[in-house]
Amino acid sequence: MSSDNLNWLSEWYQKNCDGDWEHYYGVKIETLDNPGWSLLIDIQDSPQQNIKNITWHFIENNKN
After folding, report:
1. Could you give the 3-state DSSP secondary structure of residue 36?
2. d(CA 39, CA 57)
3. What does pTM read for this prediction?
4. Which positions ≥6 away from 31 have C-beta within 8 Å?
5. pLDDT (tens digit per residue) in 6-62
6. Among 63, 64, 20, 62, which residue's Cα sits nearest to residue 45?
7. Any idea what DSSP says for residue 8?
8. To which H or E segment does residue 29 belong?
């Protein structure tokens, strides 16, 4: 993840924090055992919740 992406995600999260939203929804980053990361962004009750066409990008890196 580039620092630009991490900065975007941090700013997006801060914009959605309203004292309530962040206690129920948000961002979850976990490590996987293969190795890798899992990123879950819950957009419910955010301005993005009604977006119908979301483009997902899966990046696999097999460098060991």
Report:
1. strand
2. 11
3. 0.63
4. 37, 38
5. 898 899 899 889 898 889 888 888 888 877 788 888 888 888 888 877 777 676 666
6. 20
7. H
8. strand 26-32
